[in-house]
Design brief:
Blueprint (H helix, E strand, L loop, with lengths): L2 H18 L1 E5 L2 E9 L5 E8 L7 E4 L3 H8 L8 H14 L2 E3 L2 E6 L4 H16 L13 H11 L5 E7 L5 E8 L9 E6 L4 H7 L3 H5 L6 E6 L8 H9 L3 E4 L7 H5 L1
Parallel strand pairs: 9-10, 10-11
Antiparallel strand pairs: 1-2, 2-3, 3-4, 4-6, 5-6, 7-8, 8-9
Length: 259
C-alpha cells in the first residue's frame, strides 16, 4: 500500500458515500438518508434546517428517532440512571445535545460538515446502548477492554478525536502511543455487539485518517461472548486494513499492544 493507492481508496469511499445519500423535503427541513446503518440494518437519517434562533446557521437533528427506537425495543434510556448517564457521556464525547429524546447539534457554515459527521457518529453510538437493556450485561464492553488493558499494563489514552485528511474528526476508544523502534501508534475500537453494520459504522472515518496518522494500526475488539467470530466480521475489518480482535482470544494480542 502506498499514498497513491490510499488516496484512490479515499476518493472511492467519498464517491460511494455521495452516491448513497438520498435527500427528501420534509416541511422546512431536508431529510438526508445516509449509507450508515443502524442495528436494524436500516439506513440512518438526519434532518437539516435553518436555525430559527440564529440567522445563517443550521440545526441538525435526528428528530428523536434514535432514542424512540430504543424505547420501542424495550430499552428505557431514561428509566435507568446508568443508561441515562451513559447517554450523557456519549453525547458529550461527540459534542452534541439532547432534548426530549431528540439528538441534535447546531452549526454554522464553517463547521457544518464536521458537525454532521459528529451527529451521525453520536447516533450510531447511542443506538448501541440497546444492548445495555439485556439482563446479562453487567458492564459496558468498553470498560471491560479498559480493565483488560490496565491488567496487562498496557499504557493508553481514552476517547481520542482524530482529524482526517477531509478535516472531519473520528472518535476512537483508545490510543496506544508508538514505541520508537518497536511498535507504531495503535488505535483501538471496542464493539459490544458485533454485526457487519456495527463494524462498518465503527470503522467509519478510518480510511480518512490513515494518511494523517502514517504508520498507525487499528485494532477492533469484538465482543464475541466466547463464540467463534463470524468470517464476515473479520473480512469487514480486514477490508478496512484493520485487525479484528475477538474478545475471547484477546490475550494473543498482548505482545503487539504492550510493545
Amino acid at each position: 500500500m502506498n499514498i497513491e493507492q490510499a488516496q484512490s481508496i479515499i476518493n472511492g469511499y467519498a464517491d460511494w458515500w455521495r452516491a448513497g445519500v438520498k435527500t427528501y423535503q420534509v416541511g422546512d427541513a431536508v431529510r438526508l438518508v445516509c449509507p450508515m446503518l443502524d442495528r436494524n440494518n436500516d439506513h440512518m437519517s438526519l434532518y437539516i434546517a435553518e436555525d430559527p434562533q440564529q440567522t445563517g446557521s443550521f440545526l441538525l437533528s435526528d428528530l428523536g428517532a434514535t432514542i424512540a427506537d430504543l424505547e420501542m425495543s424495550g430499552c428505557d434510556i431514561f428509566g435507568s440512571k446508568s443508561r441515562a448517564s451513559k447517554l450523557e457521556q456519549t453525547l458529550n464525547a461527540f459534542g452534541v445535545m439532547s432534548s426530549d429524546g431528540e439528538i441534535y447539534a447546531r452549526a454554522n457554515s464553517s463547521d457544518l460538515f464536521p458537525q454532521m459527521n459528529m451527529l451521525m457518529q453520536a447516533m450510531a453510538s447511542v443506538d448501541d446502548l440497546f444492548y445495555t437493556a439485556k439482563d446479562s450485561v453487567r458492564s459496558y464492553f468498553i470498560e471491560d477492554v479498559a480493565h483488560w488493558l490496565d491488567g496487562n499494563e498496557i499504557r493508553y489514552s481514552e476517547n481520542l478525536m482524530v482529524r482526517g485528511t477531509s478535516g472531519f474528526e473520528s472518535k476512537f476508544d483508545f490510543l496506544i502511543p508508538k514505541t520508537k523502534g518497536k511498535a507504531p501508534e495503535r488505535l483501538l475500537k471496542a464493539i459490544g455487539s458485533p454485526s457487519e453494520a456495527s463494524v462498518k459504522n465503527a470503522l467509519f472515518g478510518w480510511n480518512d485518517i490513515q494518511r494523517v496518522r502514517s504508520g498507525a494500526q487499528l485494532y477492533v475488539f469484538l465482543n464475541d461472548d466466547g463464540k467463534e467470530t463470524a468470517a464476515a466480521l473479520r473480512q469487514a475489518c480486514e477490508a478496512y486494513n484493520a485487525t479484528p480482535v475477538p474478545w475471547s482470544n484477546a490475550d494473543q494480542y498482548i505482545p503487539a499492544l504492550a510493545a
